[in-house]
Amino acid sequence: MKLTTEQVDGLNVALNEAAWLGIDVDVASMRATVLFDVLALPAEGPASDETNIALLLDGVSRVAASLRNGWWDDADATVEVLSLPGLDTAVRDFGGNSIYGWEFIDPPEESWAGWRERLSLDANLSEDPAPHVLDLFQEGGGGPRHLDLRVWFRELRVRRGAGEEVPVQEFIDGGVRWWDGLYAGDPRTTGKGIIPG
After folding, report:
1. Per-residue pLDDT tens over the stretch 110-165
2. How many whole angstroms separate alpha carbon 16 and alpha carbon 175?
3. Distance between CA atoms of 68 and 65, rounded to whole angstroms?
4. DSSP 74-143
5. Fewer CB atoms inside 10 A, N or C side of the chain?
6. Cα dist. 90→54, 61, 101, 178 in Å?
7. Would the pTM of this model clear 0.90, i.e. be above it?
8. Among candidate residues 165, 192, 167, 196, the one with its CA nearest the CA of residue 180
9. Which residue in 34, 49, 58 sits closest to 125, CA to CA?
């Protein structure tokens, strides 16, 4: 499905502090499958143990990444070369660190100004630019290393770890409930190492 402004805002909430677990890019189908362990709460009852989801990005037109041997702000960090088949391995090498920052879907264009000239990978799958962007990063992974990723896509769907597809709004609602619950003191949000600021 194509995304509204409200859905973009909701997805940014639902993805905050999710652990980024992996990615697969299928060039033939122009699809990227991005794996996460997310923070979510049901409307009622205990929190689910099944918190793995996949974002299915269809109509992918471009994938760009920058893997650097240094921290995010190290202008002298060497840039490693990546291939699309090697991208998932690079992500998994970071061990599933959390993403944060509240701006993952359609962030401001300047958000990648610091790394767009230092690319490890730049794969164009279509000459027709897609309207949406997914922007992610990982850092650390056993040393001063940093990975930035940007995927341009047309449509987004959500699939649970067990394989069934769920409505995007249902996914958003679960994430919003978690963050609202955190700030309201909902005991179902404890044990995640996150405290309200």
Report:
1. 989 989 999 999 999 999 999 999 999 999 877 799 999 999 999 999 999 878 99
2. 9
3. 10
4. -TT-EEE---HHHHHHHHHTTTSPBP-SS--BS--GGGGTTTTTS-SEEEE--SS--SEEEEEEEE-SSS
5. C
6. 18, 21, 21, 29
7. yes
8. 196
9. 58
Contacts by 178-183 with C-beta closer than 8 Å and gap 24+? 178/39, 178/40, 178/41, 179/13, 179/16, 179/39, 181/41
Of 136, 162, 170, the C-alpha closest to 20 is 136
Summary count for the chain: helices (H), strands (E): 3, 10
- pLDDT band for 1, please (50, 70, 90 cuts): low
> Residue 94 CB: number of other CB atoms within 10 A?
20
192: its two tokens: 């995640």
**DSSP state at residue 187:** G
